[in-house]
């Protein structure tokens, strides 16, 4: 949002007299939308709840335990953060690399992450309980934050004024020549405006989310998951530990045993840890938790029934019938 406020220093806001009610309302709407993105990306993963929730959701989906559209709110969040380097550190992980990729995203170097995955594989195959929390000392990288510019092209266009990859999708070479605007100041203005409008249309699934509220929701989910699986006694069995140390310990249990079962077990759905079937219990808890939530509490607006209405291009250099 601070980056967008710099736009107020541009000449277009004072010398060109754009301060009519329509433009002013639009400007403040942008402030609300992109303020939600900036604040939301800071808060939605403040306790690593976004990474934990989406890595579990992805693992359940690739194992066929949760189907597409079975948990609509999570489908929307998952789609919105597919491009986040902070959450995934690359393409979506597949079976056989779920544990390793989770630890890399958690700030562990690749060598130690691979070792953690091997330990998880052994624990799953031998049905052992692995709660060696000292292994977390191998974390020696900074976790990449969730950045709005990585997940929202329209944010890059409007707040960062980044147009390096803009393409003209509405005019061919002949139309550009006949119109006579290529090479003028008007042409990049038209192309950039259309590209930004397309991005806003395409990213409605993200822009409609109340991200701070989604962060709070996923934090409740992660805490509830630990209670449902009765992990609390194992998180502080040696001595009483402060709350801020419990989430890293929870992450060890989560990655080594829950993700481990979904990564390495012959039967992920029924594989048991502490007498609880990991795939079955986690999928039931996840779908029951998120499907019991009223989406209106976390989604600002929703697409028109039957599909999103295509955005109307307000800048057109030439008419199609010319």
In short:
It is built from 16 helices and 2 strands.
Mean pLDDT: 81
For the largest sheet, list the strands in their spatial order: 1-2
Tell how many strands the DSSP assignment holds. 2
**Percentage of residues in helical conformation:** 40-55%
Distance between the termini: 42 Å
Structure report:
- This protein has 322 residues and is mainly alpha-helical.
- It contains 16 helices and 2 strands.
- The chain has helices at residues 2-5, 21-43, 49-62, 72-80, 85-88, 98-105, 110-126, 148-151, 153-158, 173-179, 186-202, 204-207, 211-228, 232-235, 243-264, 278-291, and strands spanning 272-273, 276-277.
- The chain has a two-stranded antiparallel sheet.
- A hairpin with a 2-residue loop joins strand 1 and strand 2.
- Helix 6 (98-105) packs antiparallel against helix 15 and helix 7 crosses helix 15 (243-264).
- It is elongated.
- Residues 304-322 have low confidence and may be disordered.
